[in-house]
Amino acid sequence: MDYNRHNAKDYAREHLTGIWAAALTPFTEDLAIDEDGFRSNIHHWVNELGIDGLFIAGKQGEFYAMTLEERKRTFDLAVEATAGAGQTIMSCSDPNMDVVIDLARHAEAIGADYIVVHAPMLHFAKAQDETLLAYYRTVAESVDIGIALWSHPDSGYLMSPELCNRLADIDNVVAIKYSVPRDMYVELSGLASDRIQVSTASEAEWLDNIIELDWRLYLCSSPPFLLQTARDRRMLDYTQAAFEGRVDEAREISRSLDPVREALMGTRPPEKPHAHQKYWQELLGQAGGRVRAPLLELTDAERAATRSAFEACGLLR
């Protein structure tokens, strides 16, 4: 790390910016991690798509279907593959606090840039604030690495803007992936953007959030490597235009991606987001591979429909 817990916020303000993508983990036919494919994807994403950073072994990455050692191995691979050419944020989320801290310490030891920790699942859903304050303080006191919070309905509750504002006072809490309704993240931006970067994973809302909320961080999901190719980097193009104040141009570029968005989302079968995204990756020439149980694979008919929409969407390859 190029910072310590006491200057983590300032460091993140300068470096935790731009477009960050949530990596899918490619698995081989025998369901091992496809290490060569993973490295190849990372090199493509960072060097050819211009993605600023990668979210490793999160929900998109099927962390729940991986052993602790496999999760650490994906951290290692990502740090090696991004050396000198990209940044990493390692997902340390887990129901077990000891596992969270073990993963956080491993990420810090190998030179990851940041970690992200999902709000824990609790067996009570009406009052959590003091529990969550204690939870995140415990994690933060165990490491120096910068921490991104993550609130999502999957936890069974959402962290309130007021709670997140209190958590923003922790020295090495530097960001939040706030997967909540827009009014909530707008409120939190007003409360805490002087101390943490506020972001959400919706690509559909990203441009408006740059223009209206002065956001500088997309954290993060799979669109940056599903909507773009080395020849067609329109998400990067509209982002840069918006950052530079060329709002009308940014909106025009973003609107031009609508057929690609519609092809991607319109062919995604219920209950199969991971398999569908991995197949779309393969159509783009990336390593996709299989999903692990209990996730479901695509049928031949679903693959055919996806391929047809992909070929007609206008994405340059």
Outline of this structure?
This protein is 48% helix and 12% strand. It has 317 residues and is α/β, with parallel strands linked by helices. It has one domain (8-246): Alpha-Beta Barrel (TIM Barrel), CATH 3.20.20.
Structure overview:
With 317 residues, this protein is α/β, with parallel strands linked by helices. It has one domain (8-246): Alpha-Beta Barrel (TIM Barrel). It contains 14 helices and eight strands. The protein has helices at 8-15, 35-48, 68-82, 97-110, 129-142, 161-167, 182-192, 203-213, 223-226, 234-243, 247-256, 258-266, 273-283, 300-312; strands spanning 18-22, 53-56, 87-91, 114-118, 146-151, 173-178, 197-199, 217-221. An eight-stranded parallel sheet has the order 7-6-5-4-3-2-1-8. Helix 6 (161-167) runs parallel beside helix 7. It is globular. The model has no long low-confidence stretch (mean pLDDT 97).
Show the helix and strand layout.
Layout: H1 8-15, E1 18-22, H2 35-48, E2 53-56, H3 68-82, E3 87-91, H4 97-110, E4 114-118, H5 129-142, E5 146-151, H6 161-167, E6 173-178, H7 182-192, E7 197-199, H8 203-213, E8 217-221, H9 223-226, H10 234-243, H11 247-256, H12 258-266, H13 273-283, H14 300-312
Helix pairs in contact: 2-3, 3-4, 6-7, 8-10, 10-11, 13-14
